[in-house]
């Protein structure tokens, strides 16, 4: 196995899908199933990725997911207020077996329901194609895709959000700036209690004069405490890279932190400084120096959805609530960000 700590080599590998296919260790396969989304290739990958992007891509984010996430974020935050302490870092507690059982039940129920609405959700789209016997889909593959989405989205999103909150709590000036940015949005509204509109969401993201916009905090948090610690690829043939040859069948383990903490790219790379992104346009699709969502043809299909969830949650948290640390909050990178004593906070209305 080759462990890549070289930014250029890493970028080359991630972008050359023909020379380096995705790969995962046996332990991942036990978890995700042998026939899974993260390692599938060719037309199956193309079909599944397109389907996921239809559900989690910009069009459906605007039409459907924005409102759903808005509703869920508000409801969750309201329920947090009644509790003396909540652990911010919710981890997946059930294993593959119980999640697969729950997904199978959901699939069966939805298949039985003949009065299904034409909705743009992943399960409905997959069932439609399963019933039409499109793309050779099997029930097992559909369940594995659904499980892969739970796996790829849940732990990553909750960790990324907890990490951003941790850095914001440790950097009160950045939190203050972020809060002011979001209060401006409320001031500009006729009804401060109405849900977030698409235009407001876009303004949160693209207001370039705001050095501490949520996206800068989010990206900076992920740069420092990367959630996807490693990515794997396997050489499909002998691949010549500069003066070296990567032999066929060899595995490459990519460590994004080597790019993220490179002092040649980032001044004081260990310091949380959202301002460093102020004049750099958001690295959509990944960049050589920012690989938190991967890069190339396997770039995270849920990246835009993850950013939307983060923006909405933070918007309500900083405009409507204040919070104090009750217990824990100590973060270690081992190598993924972890909170050994939990991260317990009390949330109170402003
Ligand atoms: C902060 C949150 C997230 C992070 C840091 C993250 C990170 C990543 C990374 C690094 C990859 C590339 C893996 C590789 O190249 O080997 C990836 C792929 C993927 N992610 Fe995410 N992800 C996040 C959230 C999500 C969400 C919310 C979803 C689903 C809605 C999702 C779905 C996927 C899928 C389907 C792939 C595979 C794409 C493909 O192979 O074409 N991710 N993610």
From TrEMBL:
Binding-site residues for heme, renumbered to this chain: 300
Pfam families: p450
Swiss-Prot/TrEMBL keywords: Coiled coil, Heme, Iron, Metal-binding, Monooxygenase, Oxidoreductase
Requisite cofactors: heme
Coiled coil: 100-140
PROSITE patterns from the UniProt entry: CYTOCHROME_P450 (PS00086)
InterPro entries from the UniProt entry: Cyt_P450, Cyt_P450_CS, Cyt_P450_E_grp-I, Cyt_P450_sf
Protein's GO biological process: brassinosteroid biosynthetic process; brassinosteroid homeostasis; sterol metabolic process
Molecular function GO labels: heme binding; iron ion binding; monooxygenase activity; oxidoreductase activity, acting on paired donors, with incorporation or reduction of molecular oxygen
Family annotation (PANTHER family): CYTOCHROME P450 26 (PTHR24286), CYTOCHROME P450 FAMILY PROTEIN, EXPRESSED (PTHR24286:SF81)
Family, per entry: Belongs to the cytochrome P450 family.
Protein name: Uncharacterized protein
